[in-house]
Design a protein that fits this description.
By secondary structure, the chain is an all-alpha fold. The chain is built from nine helices and no strands. Helix 1 (3-23) runs parallel beside helix 4 (88-97) and helix 2 runs antiparallel to helix 4. The longest helix is centred in the middle third of the chain and has 27 residues, at 104-130. The mean pLDDT is 89.
């Protein structure tokens, strides 16, 4: 089975997710420039969510640079990853509309990020199980690859933080995302070496 079809489908779904998020942005009721200030939380959570999706896409793209083949299991693991990503527009909209409400919107945002991180971890493990002869996958994202597990642990802490201060969930999720801003250096170095 070709990995290019999976990558093209993933790219398309992520493009649709970003489009849905931007379509959720509504102009202020007033034509006054100051009315934009009232929408600052909506714009902020949109920017955070856009950045989240971009980082996930970037890392997914780098991961699939070392993948040689895919299977039905990989397709389903990737679908689980996309399912999590597809929930981002919903929770982004909810947080933007209820930024001073109860902890529910921020906690839900954290849960969606946790689902995505678990799905990405499952995707990596499924790829490793499929092709143990692929030394690139084994050495670059196999044993000793701590980012997915660290993210899952930090996301659980972020979700629990919603009980203390809901905004802290979003802040901690952003801190966790800092682990992923730069895709795995070892993959980039490996790809440069092989070019």
């Amino acid at each position: 089975m070709s990995k290019q079809r999976l990558e093209a489908f993933t790219d398309g779904v992520i493009a649709i997710i970003i489009t849905i998020m931007v379509l959720e942005l509504r102009p202020p009721e007033s034509g006054q420039l100051g009315a934009l200030w009232g929408e600052r939380y909506v714009f902020l959570i949109y920017a955070i969510s856009f950045f989240n999706v971009a980082v996930y896409w970037n890392n997914h793209h780098h991961l699939f640079q070392i993948v040689k083949r895919v299977s039905g299991g990989v397709l389903w693991a990737n679908m689980f990853f996309l399912f999590g990503l597809s929930l981002i527009p919903f929770v982004t909209s909810w947080v933007g509309a209820n930024h001073v409400a109860d902890y529910g919107p921020e906690m839900s945002y954290g849960i969606v990020i946790l689902v995505i991180d678990i799905a990405y971890y499952i995707l990596i493990r499924t790829l490793i199980r499929l092709d143990r002869r692929n030394q690139d996958i084994m050495s670059l994202v196999g044993r000793g690859y701590y980012k997915p597990i660290a993210s899952i642990i930090l996301n659980v802490i972020a979700i629990l933080a919603a009980f203390i201060w809901p905004t802290l969930t979003i802040i901690l999720d952003m801190v966790t995302l800092l682990l992923w801003i730069k895709p795995e250096r070892r993959i980039e170095q490996h790809l440069q070496k092989n070019d």
